[in-house]
Amino acid sequence: MSPATQKPSGIFITLEGGEGSGKTTQARRLCDWLTTQGWQVLHTREPGGTLLAERVRGLLLDHSAEAIAPETEAWLILAARRQHVDHVIKPALQQGMIVVCDRFSDSTIAYQGYGRGLDLRVLRTMNKWATGKLVPHLTLLFDVPVRVGLRRRRSQRASQNRIDREATQFHEKVRAGFRTLARQEPRRMVVFDASLPLESVQQHVVTFITRWFKRRGIQQLQQR
Ligand code: T5A
Fold first, then answer.
1. Counting Cβ atoms within 10 Å, is residue 103 exposed (0-12), middle (13-18) or buried (19+)?
2. Across the strands, what pairs with 42?
3. Residues 190 and 23 sit within 8 Å (Cβ to Cβ)
4. Running DSSP on this structure, what letter comes out for residue 32?
5. Is residue 111 a contact partner of residue 143, using CB atoms and an 8 Å limit?
6. Cis peptide upstream of residue 47 (ω within 30 degrees of 0)
7. How many A from CA of 182 to the centre of ligand 1?
8. pLDDT single digits (tens) 129-146
9. Ligand 1, atom 34: closest residue by C-alpha
10. In sequence order, which residues have a C-beta less than 8 Å from that of residue 146 and are 6 or more positions away?
């Protein structure tokens, strides 16, 4: 059976948000915390996560590359996603691990759909195709006003990428898109106020995850 057709048994948690929302920092801290709790954790990211997908990431984020059409951008991201799902995410879930992924399919709806204006229905269908219908068990959305997030990102001058450099208006559409997604799927997507200090955000995340596990009896079933 190919990895794409086996039923996963681990836990898939994604982190989403606009630029400078702090999700990469929170993903790292969440993984550290889960590890100290005795879980086997895989920390990964999108676009990326495999050799090929990381190469695609390089092409997508390079601001010196030629102009990229929104459709091309979407295809590249989705192609990278399929590699990532088949080669990294599903195998780890099948081993019962907790997979913590920095961005996933919601980013495509928010950036390429709400941000770039591509057809949401088409993107959802393409997403299903790219993920083999894999949906995160839980998505943590880090919501921060665009000017705050961009200020954080722009203070890291050396690491600004092609998408960071888009106009503020683009990032506002992306933020509104994420918030719409969270309203549409409140059981899966939980919103955190990412304008709070780093430590407070982390504390909220840990408190939430602890309760989320407890509600599902996950601790007893899967902690090793
Ligand atoms: N993309 C991706 C799409 O368009 N479609 C898709 O489908 C997918 C999957 C990825 C780009 O690709 C696009 C979206 C992105 O533009 P990236 O470089 O990985 O590019 O960009 P980000 O995902 O935005 O990740 P970053 O790591 O750059 O930013 P984060 O995760 O938002 O923020 P983080 O944690 O690196 O923090 C940024 C700075 O803020 C500070 C941190 O210390 C750091 O200096 N910070 C805080 N400061 C104060 N208070 C807090 N609460 C803070 N939290 C963090």
1. buried
2. 99
3. no
4. H
5. no
6. yes
7. 18
8. 999 999 999 999 999 999
9. 22
10. 18, 168, 171, 172, 175
- Tell me the domains of the chain and their CATH numbers: 11-215 (3.40.50.300)
Ligand 1 near 201 CB (within 6 A): yes
The model's pTM: 0.94
Edge to edge, the sheet with strand 189-193 lists: 41-45, 98-102, 11-17, 138-143, 189-193
Contacts of 162 (CB under 8 A, 6+ apart): 60, 61, 62, 63, 65, 68
Where helices occur in 14-145 by DSSP H, the ranges are: 23-36, 51-61, 70-84, 90-94, 105-107, 120-131
For the chain, how big is the Rg over CA atoms in Å? 17
Q: Is residue 107 in contact with ligand 1, taking CB distance under 6 Å?
A: yes
Residue range 137-183, pLDDT digits in tens: 999 999 999 999 999 988 875 567 888 888 999 999 999 999 999 99
Cβ neighbours around 117 below 10 Å, total: 11
Question: What number does the ligand 1 atom closest to the CA of 104 have?
Answer: 9
Cα of 219 vs its chain's centroid, Å: 24
Could you tell me the two tokens for 145? 């006003």
